[in-house]
Write a structure and sequence with these properties.
This protein is α/β, with parallel strands linked by helices. The protein has 10 helices and 16 strands.
Length: 330
């Protein structure tokens, strides 16, 4: 009999959509040329959508959920990896069209994997996860655009979430002045502890506003979209850069061309799912040096697989602070 291991599996049939912790085998996983002994995964907004079925994430069923994993190569038919290699995987269709990281084992293609920097352990890698890796992609976009620490304030929206928390920590270490936008006043001390100079209420940005407003931001990391992103664009200073990576507030963008043609503002779209390997490697290399690892402890909590089922609907309601590390073996 094939060895079994635990996984969170989503299924959809005539009885509806369900997710549960089940025993599965390697035969239940997607095809791939590398098998990974998974140590940790993590909980992102997209995971909440997949586990609850609130978003059309899984493209086939049954599907192992989890868009992230970190662990050790167990077997490999690829010359690029050997047993014992420490690896991390973010996105690339995990829990969409490829079985994901909420399992004790994963079978993936070698071209999905990044070798984990030596200075980052598995737990830290998943405290970072897709959220932190996306935050680093946003910071890199702002840097490439030439926005320097002395150019003015950087706005981070959805600041108490995973992307926001990591972005604040990185930007603060790099010397930027960070303003955090959040709807939870109870998180202000937490955000200032990560490095935010000031906290503002998200309602200042979430309501429809004028398409061209008093300039304030040299750069923006936006996880919200909709009116929040539109207002952020309208408030960005001449030549500033807005890195947009999320849709927690909606997929619409009620803005005009005015910020772009009158202030030369750049809207940089950030995709973490299909980002090329060069961008992934750069992001993880920079995370190893530019993210204060002690900040991860302040923003992270570790749970087992069963707890993910409880937290998935909460993250969709904005009730999960910081990062949730998932110990798939607990």
């Amino acid at each position: 009999m094939a060895d079994t291991f635990r996984a969170i599996v989503a299924n959809k049939d005539d009885d509806g959509y369900t997710s549960s912790v089940r025993q599965i085998t390697l035969d239940d996983l997607s095809e791939g040329n590398v098998v990974v002994d998974v140590a940790y995964s993590t909980l992102n907004y997209k995971d909440g959508l997949a586990v609850t079925g609130k978003g059309k994430i899984c493209e086939s069923f049954p599907m192992v959920c989890g868009i992230d994993l970190a662990g050790t190569v167990a077997t490999s038919d690829s010359g690029d990896f050997k047993p014992g290699d420490r690896v991390v995987l973010n996105g690339y269709g995990l829990s969409q069209n490829h079985s994901g990281g909420y399992a004790q084992k994963a079978r993936v293609r070698a071209d999905m994997l990044v070798k984990l920097p030596d200075s980052i352990d598995f737990s830290q890698a998943m405290a970072i996860g897709t959220a932190g890796y996306t935050a680093m992609l946003c910071v890199l976009a702002i840097e490439r655009h030439g926005v320097a620490p002395g150019d003015g304030e950087i706005l981070v929206t959805g600041a108490a979430g995973g992307v926001g928390s990591v972005a604040i920590s990185i930007l603060n270490k790099l010397g930027y002045t960070v303003v955090a936008s959040t709807g939870r006043s109870s998180t202000h001390d937490y955000l200032k502890g990560l490095g935010a100079r000031e906290c503002i209420d998200r309602n200042e940005l979430s309501e429809p506003g004028k398409p061209f407003q008093r300039p304030r931001w040299a750069g923006v990391v936006d996880t919200v979209g909709s009116s929040t992103l539109a207002n952020a664009l309208a408030q960005t200073k001449y030549g500033g850069c807005v890195a947009a990576c999320g849709l927690a507030g909606g997929t619409d963008l009620p803005t005009t061309v005015l910020p772009f043609i009158l202030r030369g503002v750049t809207l940089a779209g950030i995709d973490s799912v299909e980002a090329p390997m060069a961008a992934r490697t750069e992001a993880w290399t920079r995370l190893a040096t530019d993210l204060p690892m002690d900040a991860l402890d302040a923003m992270s909590a570790t749970v087992g697989l069963e707890k993910v089922l409880e937290l998935a609907p909460e993250i969709l309601k904005g009730q999960v602070r910081g990062r949730v590390i998932v110990d798939v073996n607990a």
